[in-house]
Specification:
Elements: E1 2-3, E2 6-7, H1 10-31, H2 37-43, H3 48-51, H4 53-75, H5 78-97, H6 102-116, H7 119-130, H8 133-164, H9 167-194, H10 210-218, H11 221-241, H12 244-250, H13 256-306, H14 310-335, H15 343-372, H16 374-396, H17 399-402
Antiparallel strand pairs: 1-2
Helix pairs in contact: 1-5, 1-7, 1-8, 1-9, 4-6, 4-15, 5-6, 5-7, 5-9, 7-8, 7-15, 8-9, 8-13, 8-14, 11-14, 11-15, 11-16, 12-13, 13-14, 13-16, 15-16
Length: about 400
């Protein structure tokens, strides 16, 4: 891959492919419980809101763990930590298979969250350290292809396997998946360690304490904008997405398999964006991607939440995913540049705010659904995404000004 003078070596491309496998697995395990929530509610004789703890608690732990992985990634091997994280996920999924109560399943999901927390943010930070900015958004889109494929697979596995064989088999599949990916990553990590060390122009050279790193990010005006947008995106986008399958199952009468498959089109839409990302990045620019992406995602979510026809949910889920990841990919690229001298901490704080927003969104969505209905909650989340895309596009015009030190 080349753009001007920037190039990616064959070894770097191989590592990026393996990181895509890791992000695939990480996103699959995050979304696998969405479509199985009604079944978990029945299996453990609890309410839907109680069953949703397997999603919301996961998101809280995932977000808080970033405060640890960010500084570790700036001092140790980011790629090595991703490798260790996938191994921890393998163990956590194995425990989930044999969970005899909702409480034990939630604790197993905590273990998985602790491992998964290292994968996506440190993969992004590794790309930020290794790839020049002119190629970075395209490369993040390639890594993101694994993420969106994992979103598709997580929804499908959660719905289809739960319907056909039971929810435990979904976690058995993920145990095997994480085991294989961990082995592949470990082999590549050893190869990287054996290779001659070549300094990267993007690799941070200044190492300061975590508090100083965090303060430099949190006190920066542009950093605060990116983190705020990440939090709202997590709540309105990923948070509301957790009840899409339940809405299609409960309100439109679809089976869990059908509902999970339709919601999986959200991830398929994201995959479609990733395949054309290079062209769209060059044609629309960051502001165009943010405003159009947020608008498409939000309008599609509103239609999906309010339509009485399940057939219309098919194209709307696909369109929502395409627009959402158009917006999200733009936000990711900006997150890798918030703190070049502490990239691991910066990207991890970004992920922390994103998934803390998701946890708030899941809890609000589950609670508000009982009051106003799931369709209204999904539509409300869509409206927030439309506004967020417009606001972030406007903020991008002043990015250079706001990134200047006070």
């Amino acid at each position: 891959m080349t753009t001007g003078t920037a190039t990616l070596s064959a070894a770097t491309r191989r590592s990026i492919l393996l990181l895509s496998f890791a992000t695939f697995s990480s996103m699959a395990v995050q979304r696998v419980c969405d479509a199985m929530l009604p079944e978990l509610s029945r299996a453990f004789s609890v309410s839907l809101a109680q069953a949703a703890q397997v999603v919301s608690v996961f998101a809280v732990v995932y977000g808080l763990a970033q405060l640890v992985y960010g500084p570790l990634g700036d001092r140790l091997s980011k790629f090595g930590l991703v490798t260790c994280g996938t191994l921890v996920c393998c163990v956590g999924c194995f425990v989930s298979v044999f969970a005899g109560s909702l409480e034990l399943l939630v604790w197993a999901r905590v273990m998985v969250a602790l491992g998964a927390a290292a994968v996506i943010p440190l993969a992004m930070a590794w790309v930020g350290d290794t790839v020049a900015y002119e190629l970075r958004q395209e490369t993040l889109a390639r890594v993101g292809l694994g993420t969106t494929m994992g979103l598709v697979s997580g929804q499908l596995v959660g719905g289809f396997v739960t319907d056909a064989f039971g929810w435990r088999w979904a976690f058995a599949f993920l145990t095997l998946l994480f085991g294989v990916v961990a082995c592949l990553l470990y082999a590549d990590w050893r190869r990287q360690q054996a290779a001659p060390v070549v300094a990267s122009p993007n690799e941070p050279e200044v190492r300061v304490g975590f508090v100083a790193q965090a303060l430099s990010i949190l006190t920066g005006r542009w950093s605060r904008v990116v983190l705020f947008v990440a939090f709202v995106e997590g709540a309105a986008g990923f948070g509301a997405l957790a009840i899409w399958a339940s809405h299609l199952h409960g309100k439109l009468g679809l089976s869990l398999t059908a509902a999970g498959a339709i919601v999986a089109l959200f991830g398929l839409g994201g995959m479609l964006y990733m395949t054309v990302a290079r062209r769209l990045i060059r044609r629309l620019g960051e502001r165009g991607l943010a405003s159009l992406g947020g608008g498409l995602a939000g309008l599609a979510a509103m239609v999906l939440g309010l339509t009485p026809w399940w057939e219309l949910a098919l194209p709307m889920s696909l369109l929502a995913g395409f627009g959402f990841f158009m917006f999200h990919n733009t936000l990711q690229a900006n997150a890798t540049q918030m703190a070049p001298t502490a990239r691991g901490t910066g990207v991890s704080l970004f992920s922390a705010w994103l998934f803390l927003g998701q946890s708030v969104g899941v809890l609000l969505a589950a609670s508000l659904s009982a009051l106003v209905g799931s369709g209204a909650v999904i539509a409300l989340g869509g409206g927030v995404l439309v506004a967020l895309g417009t606001l972030f596009a406007r903020a991008l015009r002043r990015r250079d000004e706001w990134m200047q030190p006070a």
